[in-house]
Amino acid sequence: xxxxxxxxxxxxxxxxxxxxxxxxxxLLLGGAVFGQSSQKNNVYRxxxxxxxxxxxxxxxxxxxxxxxxxxxxxxxxxTDAVDEFSYYVPxxxxxxxxxxxxxxxxxxxLIVTKRFGYAFVMSTIPGSPAxxxxxxxxxxxxxxxxxxxxxxxxxxxxxxxxxxxxLRLQILRGGQTKRDEFTLQRAQFHPLxxxxxxxxxxxxxxIPYFEKGISxxxxxxxxxxxxxxxxxxxxxxxxxxxxxxxxxxxSADELLSSGLITSLEGRxxxxxxxxxxxxxxxxxxVEVLTDASTASGGEIFAAAIKGNGRGKTVGxxxxxxAIVQQFIPLTSGGGVFMTIGHFTTPELxxxxxxxxxxxxxxxxxxxxxxxxxxxxxxxxxxxxLEKALSLFGENASLASQLKKAA
Length: 406
Prior knowledge:
alpha+beta; 6-stranded mixed beta sheet; 6-stranded antiparallel beta sheet; CATH 3.90.226.10
């Protein structure tokens, strides 16, 4: 968002117009500088156009505009255009940014990004205060302690959520006009262990988060399933959007005896490939459940099973956030938190480019809009698990056993 200092207050629409206009100019500039053509005239022409338009805005716009603030808005527009996970930090905000620690978890269990200008819930970590309160993937956080998230950079939203005092959140969810109010208190809910249950003739394992040591837990569970004589397995990585990527890779290796698990690519990272290199404790049939809140390590795990033909993925396309990021300081005193690498599927496709598409897609349209009279904590029919059970020839009604156990 561009901040201006006019002779009289500027409207939000005017500020937005300036931000978008200058950001688009810089994107055109970036395309010329880093695009296909190397001819000098194709580089200097957009530079001269940008300088000309920028000067016109400064000298002819209806109200005075500060150059540095306009440029800060443009730089933010450039990082926003690259991907929703990269961001620019102006020099004026670096003192506050130094006290912020980028990470998956904030103590209340919300993994967030920004969409349409507002904080957007990618996932709620199982067992967290946010999950227990009924906040869901797809919810928009309009305000944190009365402060509109529309006016906050994503790192400022995450910093605000990482608080020791109780937080008041105003949430807007699909199909509703009424805002829901939540008050959440930071709590200790880690480590999160995987859970295991028998659904008829099928073993079911839920991996909620790739904690340190989760791959060893999976190995132990797989060994027990094999000894029990069960040959059908469902592994659920829905809502798994964080944790240790190495644990996700090691967990996939527990089910693979050969093949590429994933690779890391990027112009500024050391390229690397992970090959499956151990005998699996379970050689039966496998299905992996995914949804739109499956991200990062959860996506790497699902892609490895699918790409190596080890099992089917069932559900919804994953989020598309298997990336590596780094903060890069600028000479101006500010900096850019930027995506510098991405993980791939076994077919060497970047996971961030569209996520992991399931082998069997489950239509969740009927659940897209929540009835305003329905309590947010009421469990819904688990259509994805029901589909997975039916693919294995089991009665879909067994899915209700998990609701009772939850």
